[in-house]
């Protein structure tokens, strides 16, 4: 009995010590949470959050310098995931109001200058020099970068309208939170 | 053969089938305009093939299926295409949807039909599958799943039984009942064609026991075919749900999130069988369906063969209007149907009926707090725990509700129906499933964006490297060439 206790205690102390040393020796320089957060962000480098790219945004998030609702293309899903990861309470009420948008190129005005094509960080715009450009709507996430690049002002951002295939039942209004329950 | 296995849960609503079940199927006069919606099926939205002003004949294809999981549409009558525009859909949301608007010319003149297949049992299954797809046939029990896709499941799964669904378990609705009574031979023929296509021997026609006439007529019609058995199933809602019916009749339970075909059974509705018969034997596409118009608020309830696209207002008018203003105008049955957003919404391929409910037929009571009685758990046919799921969803804990398998909810409404506190349970689950699906879609889009952004960076980087390499090569070439010229000049 005593032999077992002593040997296990010794083993514990030695292994624990080793782990302690290893954590000092092999310490990772950067914040691991930063990497994890970066993986959670869309990674489209759109810059809508105000940071240069997703890596910078992740760094700010990890330091707690940016709100979890900073990422418009990520939407509610990313905000919730970030809040869970960082253990903060996300104020999602205001965030959900933002309707997803997609860019649209006015065919009549497009001159095929390739500027928007070169600006789009996710290759959601197709086209060739002096050819009409078009937006791939299922990739475009409405970051609006192409808007400023267009010298013809031919690009607009339009809200994605709800259709019968994207609609779903609303959450039932809590009709009764009666006094008996509240008390 | 044992055909009565125990099933979980279920409820016993008041059926009120007597309002319409003895009214034979009547042809329906053409409405002033027909609105053929482009999304009448599960899958990709159909692409219109006609132009405004074009004259079409009855049965002409007016929209094509852009994918295998889709369905084409055909002109329900001859006439002129007046518009292709957004029009109120028979959908719970009240949103509009693209529709081909046809103004009938009154001649009801047939176009060129597909050639009838004289011997459907002598042709390979693919010929029948192609025909069913061309005819725009979808599951007419209300699920509107493309029938051709379902008939192709014989290639993917090891099947042994075709289960023909004549349960029609929604209260009020009598369309399938009438189809079985009046088109028994055609339904049996359609079922045999489908069984041949699926490569199965056995056909079971399951009819709920509250339709004794249909059971009798179908038994007689199937008598000459020993591989067909007609069975009466117990009067229990939602027995008509495919997986549930399969379990009740064959004793096989479909695993969660799997297809019915994985247990060797394919379920088809009786009205779908009739459409298959018409498409194969006569080359007629799905351009009309039997619709029940009923409810105590309607003057003359009945069953009608209605051209697809007929506005509901025309149905109500044809039935003599209302005896009293209905409290609810329901599209489909009262258990799983929804309130029609507008009477102008048209009949779709999946419309089984219109129920105009008077206020004395409805129960509207204020929602009360949950008393945790557990009734909802007892009646859930899937074996879920509605009480817990609803509590989580109320607190926006959707992921946790998903772990309790809210995604397996079939929205049959048994829990809401039985809840003594009148909590709209099924709406909570519909909301949660919609919200989870939308969030998942966004997640997938974000993943795609990430891949696209990374691919772009890589592409630009490669292009840059190539440019630099080319530049370096040019320089090297120039350097190599330079001394030669110097020497030459000396």
TrEMBL record, chain A:
Lineage: superkingdom: Bacteria
E.C. number(s) listed in UniProt: 7.-.-.-
Assembly notes: The complex is composed of six subunits: RnfA, RnfB, RnfC, RnfD, RnfE and RnfG.
Annotated GO biological process: electron transport chain
Keywords linked to the UniProt accession: 4Fe-4S, Cell inner membrane, Cell membrane, Electron transport, Iron, Iron-sulfur, Membrane, Metal-binding, Repeat, Translocase, Transport
Protein name: Ion-translocating oxidoreductase complex subunit B
Subcellular compartments: Cell inner membrane
NCBIfam families named among the record's database cross-references: rnfB
Keyword Cell inner membrane carried by entry: yes
Pfam families: Fer4_21 (PF14697), FeS (PF04060)
Cofactor(s) it depends on: [4Fe-4S] cluster
Sites where the protein binds [4Fe-4S] cluster 1: 46, 49, 54, 71
Textual note on the cofactor: Binds 3 [4Fe-4S] clusters.
Domain 4Fe-4S ferredoxin-type: residue ranges: 101-130, 131-160
Region of interest: Hydrophobic: 1-23
Residues of the 4Fe-4S domain: 29-88
UniProt keyword annotation of Isomerase present: no
Binding sites annotated in the UniProt record for [4Fe-4S] cluster 2: 110, 113, 116, 150
Automatic annotation (TrEMBL), chain B:
GO MF: 4 iron, 4 sulfur cluster binding; electron transfer activity; metal ion binding
Gene Ontology BP annotations: electron transport chain
Positions annotated to bind [4Fe-4S] cluster 1: 370, 373, 376, 419
Cofactor dependence: [4Fe-4S] cluster
Annotated keywords: 4Fe-4S, Cell inner membrane, Cell membrane, Electron transport, Iron, Iron-sulfur, Membrane, Metal-binding, Repeat, Translocase, Transport
Ranges annotated as spanning the membrane: none
Keyword Membrane: yes
PROSITE patterns: 4FE4S_FER_1 (PS00198), 4FE4S_FER_2 (PS51379)
UniProt: [4Fe-4S] cluster 2 binding residues: 380, 409, 412, 415
A Gene Ontology cellular-component term: plasma membrane
Main subcellular localisation: membrane
UniProt-listed Gene3D superfamilies: 3.30.70.20, NADH-ubiquinone oxidoreductase 51kDa subunit (3.40.50.11540)
Quaternary structure and partners: The complex is composed of six subunits: RnfA, RnfB, RnfC, RnfD, RnfE and RnfG.
Described purpose of this protein according to its UniProt entry: Part of a membrane-bound complex that couples electron transfer with translocation of ions across the membrane.
Family statement drawn from the similarity comment of this UniProt entry: Belongs to the 4Fe4S bacterial-type ferredoxin family. RnfC subfamily.
Annotated protein name in UniProt: Ion-translocating oxidoreductase complex subunit C
GN (gene name): rnfC
């Amino acid at each position: 009995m005593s032999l077992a206790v002593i040997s296990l205690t010794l083993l514990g102390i030695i292994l624990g010590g080793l782990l302690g040393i290893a954590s000092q020796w092999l310490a990772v320089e950067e914040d691991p949470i930063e990497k994890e957060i970066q993986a959670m962000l869309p990674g489209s480098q759109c810059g809508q959050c105000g940071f240069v790219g997703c890596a910078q945004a992740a760094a700010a998030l990890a330091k707690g310098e940016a709100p979890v609702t900073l990422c418009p293309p990520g939407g509610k899903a990313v905000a919730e995931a970030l809040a869970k990861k960082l253990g903060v309470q996300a104020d999602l009420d205001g965030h959900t109001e933002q309707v997803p948008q997609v860019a649209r190129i006015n065919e009549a005005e497009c001159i095929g200058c390739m500027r928007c094509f070169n600006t789009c960080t996710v290759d959601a715009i197709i086209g060739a020099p002096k050819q009409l450009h078009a937006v791939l709507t299922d990739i475009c996430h409405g970051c609006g970068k192409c808007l400023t690049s267009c010298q013809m002002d031919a690009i607009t951002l339009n809200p994605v309208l709800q259709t019968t295939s994207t609609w779903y039942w609303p959450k039932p209004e809590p009709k009764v939170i009666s006094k008996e329950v509240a008390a | 053969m044992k055909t009565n296995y125990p099933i979980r849960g279920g409820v016993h609503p008041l059926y009120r089938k007597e309002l319409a079940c003895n009214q034979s199927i009547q042809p329906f006069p053409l409405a002033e305009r027909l609105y053929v919606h482009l999304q009448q099926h599960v899958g990709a939205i159909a692409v219109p093939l006609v132009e405004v002003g074009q004259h079409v004949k009855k049965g002409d294809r007016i929209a094509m299926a852009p994918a295998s999981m889709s369905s084409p549409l055909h002109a329900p009558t001859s006439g002129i295409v007046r518009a292709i525009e957004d029009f109120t859909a028979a959908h719970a949301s009240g949103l509009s949807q693209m529709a081909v608007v046809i103004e009938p010319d009154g001649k009801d003149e047939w176009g060129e039909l597909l050639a009838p297949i004289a011997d459907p049992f002598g042709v390979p299954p693919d010929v029948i599958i192609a025909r069913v797809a061309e005819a725009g046939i979808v599951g007419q029990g209300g699920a509107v799943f493309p029938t051709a896709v379902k008939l192709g499941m014989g290639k993917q799964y090891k099947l042994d039984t075709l289960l023909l669904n004549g349960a029609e378990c929604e209260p009020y609705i009598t369309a399938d009942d009438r189809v079985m009574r009046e088109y028994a031979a055609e339904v049996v023929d359609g079922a045999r064609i489908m069984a041949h296509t699926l490569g199965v021997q056995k056909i079971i026609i399951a009819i709920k026991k509250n339709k004794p006439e249909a059971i009798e007529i179908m038994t007689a019609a199937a008598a000459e075919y020993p591989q067909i058995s007609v069975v009466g199933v117990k009067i229990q809602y939602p027995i008509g749900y495919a997986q549930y019916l399969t379990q009740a009749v064959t004793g096989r339970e479909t695993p969660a999130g799997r297809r019915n075909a994985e247990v060797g059974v394919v379920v088809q509705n009786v009205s779908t069988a009739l459409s298959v018969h018409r498409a194969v034997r006569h080359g007629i596409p799905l351009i009309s369906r039997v619709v029940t118009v009923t409810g105590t608020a309607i003057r003359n309830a009945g069953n009608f063969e209605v051209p697809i696209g007929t506005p509901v207002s025309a149905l109500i008018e044809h039935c003599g209007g209302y005896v009293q203003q209905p409290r609810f105008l329901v599209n489909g049955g009262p258990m799983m149907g929804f309130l029609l957003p507008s009477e102008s919404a048209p009949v779709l391929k999946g419309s089984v009926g219109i129920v105009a409910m008077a206020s004395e037929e409805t129960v509207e009571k204020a929602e009360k707090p949950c008393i945790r009685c557990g009734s909802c758990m007892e009646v859930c046919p899937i074996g879920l725990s509605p009480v817990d799921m609803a509590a989580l969803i109320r607190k926006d804990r959707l992921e946790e509700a998903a772990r309790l398998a809210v995604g397996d909810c079939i929205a049959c409404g048994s829990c809401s129906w039985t809840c003594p506190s009148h909590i709209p349970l099924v709406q909570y689950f519909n909301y949660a499933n919609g919200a989870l699906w939308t969030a998942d879609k966004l997640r997938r889009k974000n993943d795609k964006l990430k891949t696209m952004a990374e691919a772009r960076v890589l592409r630009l980087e490669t292009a840059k490297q190539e440019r630099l390499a080319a530049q370096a090569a040019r320089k090297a070439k120039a350097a190599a060439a330079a001394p030669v010229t110097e020497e030459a000049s000396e």
